[in-house]
Automatic annotation (TrEMBL):
It comes from Oryza barthii. GO terms for cellular component: endoplasmic reticulum membrane. It catalyses: D-glucosamine 6-phosphate + acetyl-CoA = N-acetyl-D-glucosamine 6-phosphate + CoA + H(+). This is glucosamine-phosphate N-acetyltransferase. Transmembrane segments: none annotated. GO terms for biological process: N-acetylglucosamine biosynthetic process; root development; UDP-N-acetylglucosamine biosynthetic process. Keywords: Acyltransferase, Endoplasmic reticulum, Membrane, Transferase.
Length: 167
């Protein structure tokens, strides 16, 4: 039986479930989303080799075990049932800042055909609200310079620089 990630209740409590007659319903990722275009959506973010259903399920269950500290949101097109956007936030638990928490926004993507209608901003704002509801004192993300305007619209300000080391 299909179960949404257990973060669903916490996310709903933080303002989720806005399916009230809107064209897109933003909700937590479900196992069945593999057949609603989730992987194709992620492919628009970063082209990857195809993922088997088994691998998808294993990763889904791994993330579910993290509870509300890891939330993947998707936007479902109410008319077609296909996914039009996705994004994730994970909550880092620190020792500093009196054992403070930091939200990390990752893997935000809107289907090419649905861009420019405010969907990306809606997803990001919902991820931020989730992090705030989990007690985070800040939310951070990495992006290319071309996207700073988009994230500024979502309330972010530029701070420091990103560094990476790839294997
Ligand atoms: C942390 C990360 O995940 S970074 C990776 C981000 N994802 C990608 O790059 C994947 C490919 N791109 C996309 O999926 C989309 O273009 C997104 C997610 C960047 C934007 O999604 P959209 O739904 O098109 O954005 P949305 O319509 O919500 O835009 C909100 C506002 O930001 C503005 N905006 C959107 N994209 C940009 C941009 N690249 N530069 C500047 N402003 C932008 C819009 O004009 C809009 O402003 P307005 O309110 O004044 O009209």
């Amino acid at each position: 039986m299909e179960q949404p990630l257990p973060t669903a209740a916490a996310e709903a409590a933080a303002g989720g479930g806005d399916g009230d007659g809107e064209a897109y319903r933003i909700r937590p990722l479900e196992l069945a989303d593999i057949s609603r275009g989730f992987l194709g959506l992620l492919n628009q973010l970063s082209p990857s080799p195809p993922l088997t259903e088994e691998a998808f399920r294993a990763r889904f269950e791994e993330l579910a075990a993290l509870g509300a500290d890891h939330l993947v949101l998707v936007a479902e097109d109410a008319a077609t049932g296909r996914l039009a956007a996705a994004g994730a936030v994970l909550v880092e638990r620190k020792f500093i800042r009196r054992c403070g928490r930091v939200g990390h926004v990752e893997d935000v993507v809107v289907d090419a055909a649905a861009r420019g209608r405010g969907l990306g901003e809606r997803v990001v704002r919902r991820l931020v609200e989730h992090a705030r509801g989990r007690g985070c004192y800040k939310v951070i993300l990495n992006c290319t310079p071309e996207l700073t305007g988009f994230y500024a619209k979502c309330g972010f300000v530029e701070k420091n620089v990103q560094m990476g080391l790839y294997f």
